[in-house]
Amino acid sequence: MPLVTRRLRDPDVNPCLLESDASTRCMDENNYDKERCSSYFLKYKNCRRFWNSVMVQRRQNGVKPPMPTAAERAEILGAMGKLPY
């Protein structure tokens, strides 16, 4: 597996792995009819937007690494009580 693909499949690097997989699965099941999968695309887009804002905030505060690890993300989402996206 190429390095780029491995990085995208790594839960520590890609916070929206579940949303990405769900949208891909939807496209496969619906013969690539984008209209039927628009809700999955919207969830993925909102997920990326949320984690990007977290990353920007952490970078501004000088926190390293800018993207929280998978364990830290689970803790953040647990503190929120539900998915913000």
UniProtKB/TrEMBL annotation:
Stretches of the chain forming a coiled coil according to its record: none
Family: Belongs to the CHCHD7 family.
GO cellular component terms given for this protein: mitochondrial intermembrane space
Annotated signal peptide: none
Annotated source species: Oryctolagus cuniculus (Rabbit)
Keyword Mitochondrion (UniProt): yes
Organismal lineage: Eukaryota, Metazoa, Chordata, Craniata, Vertebrata
Subcellular location: Mitochondrion intermembrane space
Keyword Membrane recorded: no
Single biological process term from Gene Ontology: mitochondrial respiratory chain complex assembly
UniProt name for this protein: Coiled-coil-helix-coiled-coil-helix domain-containing protein 7
Principal place of residence: mitochondrion
UniProt gene name: CHCHD7
Keywords per UniProt: Disulfide bond, Mitochondrion
